[in-house]
Amino acid sequence: MSEKYVKANGVRLAYEAFGDPANPAIVLMMGLGTQLIGWPIALCEGLVDRGFYVIRFDNRDIGLSEKMENAHIPQAATLMLRSRLRLPLKVPYTLDDMAQDCVGLLDALGIDRAHLVGASMGGMIGQIVAARFGERLHSFTSIMSTSGNPKIPMARRDVIMAMVKRSLGLEKITLESTMAYWRKIGSPAYQPSDKELKKKILDSYYRSNHPEGYSRHMAAVLASGSRVRLLKQITTPTLVIHGRDDALVSVEGGIDTARNIHGARLEIFDGMGHDLPKALLPDFIELIATHAKDSQRKQSRAT
After folding, report:
1. Disulfide-capable partner of 236 in 73, 130, 230, 267 (CB 3.0 to 4.6 Å)?
2. How many domains does the structure of the chain reveal?
């Protein structure tokens, strides 16, 4: 695919589009420090085959989208400690700003309403879009995300320690250490081969290597706090997908998200961690496409 660019909310965003623009649009929004290529081509093409126009984009400060070069670089370990103690955090931008980016993308592409799918941090941003800009959405799907409720479990201890070591420079970031980290958080029942995992990591590295953006994304997530009250405002038809074995964002995060959105449907996959396993892509395509079509059909009948 060849990236295109638009100005959205004052930020230059890179995006790719698949399918016929005359079809209903599905916008795919990735997670913390993850580029648009984190959305598998097979998933995009599967949704196109189901009759959708699919758009995946790089969030601000990552991939080929505009970098916030003049913004300070927060220290992840300090942020995590202050967040745990519920102390105020100074951050360059917030998830609300990134929600405005998403709406700005729709504006720039001339899309009045879309189906929105967000993974991890993208799900958190999507929650804000659904709550505050619900009139722009036909449906919302949240994958491996969370409500931000401080009562739910944190990431698994070994995952937290790995993140802290990497952020403090106590562990050299190499291909091998990055593979080890992805295996910690990935799906235990659907582990990719070493060849597949190496390709995924290197494709991302050579497309764009911007660790400062990862740090600022982390800051935005930690500063966002609980979204439970916000979730209760969502009227957009919502599907929540989560892995029972997610070591980074515990399954309780998905359960709590669905619990606090009126009428939300929850689908939990055994053996799934914090990734999008190839073996489960047909299930994801079916769930997202059916949810989107059912939501739009009900809205059409209502009008």
Report:
1. 130
2. 1
